[in-house]
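Aim 2, interim progress: modelling of the adenosine-5'-triphosphate-bound target.
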Amino acid sequence: MKSLPITIASVSKAYGSYVALDDVSLDIQAGEFLTLLGPSGSGKTTLLMALAGFVRPDSGKLLLADRDITRLAPNKRDIGIVFQNYALFPHMNVLANVEYPLALRKTPKADARQRALDALARVKLEGLAERNIAALSGGQRQRVALARAIVFEPRVMLMDEPLSALDRNLRETMQYEIRRLHDDLGITTIYVTHDQREALTMSDRVAVMNSGRIQQIDTPQQIYDRPSTRFVAQFMGEANILAPGSVRTIDGGDAFRETLMIRAESFHLDVKLVGRDGAALDGMLRAKAFRGENWLLTLALDDGQEVLVCIPSALAGGCAELAAGQRLTVYASAAKVHAIPGATS
Ligand SMILES: Nc1ncnc2c1ncn2[C@@H]1O[C@H](COP(=O)(O)OP(=O)(O)OP(=O)(O)O)[C@@H](O)[C@H]1O
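Predicted structure of the complex, ligand included:
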């Protein structure tokens, strides 16, 4: 299957006075797995619907390779879709559901059957072709939806929160399977989720959206370790945003002048685990909690800022003896101290 690159060029969409997409531009490479991540209402679904052809942008262009698809009907776009609520046909069995897109495209019956069976094998449902939809579990239904989306060999796949109705264990299995399917078929995939961990686990790149704009587009590791805005830093897990002057260097003791992000799990209690070019924070231990795999300490800096410190239990010698109210210094290596570009405190 030959996949295609996608270009989203200055796309805007408003509903009345509400701006759902605000001049969004994005290049997605052929064969890439890109995730749109953001809070509810940030515009992820609107952008996906615009690509699918169900929402017409007010301005801007959508290209599949060199082809302008901005005004093309959804069924002419060569795009496979799996939505959380993209219902299967309950009165048809599994096989008929998967054959449906081929029937629409007037594929000869025997060919359609073989391709549907192949698609079912790819999603590990080969034994269930004759089963009624009503007699399937949630995970199996999503596999049928996946098979139906890939059966006509689309050049692009769009997925909108396809796993959000599944329980946690099944979700993790399906994350792995969707990624494997993507790697086998190499289809350019755009995946929408509001789950940070899911985005980090599955994607080649993540685009973080807020208020109809893309805040940052980068690899999962860059997004997590090097957020370009305060919003991205805080959306991606336990981030301490520290005002200029509140963190000092270990060597020399000078204060850092930038707004810094240091993640809770980047801290150590033992200075020997951190290079001399690292950072130190001095404060008073306000609270501590044992959480099984780690300890969570709350440190109050002298200027009143609170810092969350997460120490893995395996490295937490001494945590049990710490007492609220005592002075404490925590350390982070230079690689884990990130200055947020352009952030004011
Ligand atoms: N047809 C519509 N009419 C009016 N407002 C709409 C319409 N569709 C979406 N909106 C609004 O546009 C904004 C963006 O919605 P969108 O569904 O794209 O967000 P989202 O990031 O996908 O959120 P969620 O994670 O909750 O699905 C929301 O405030 C939503 O209420």
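The chain has two domains: 6-235, 239-339. The chain has a mean pLDDT of 92.
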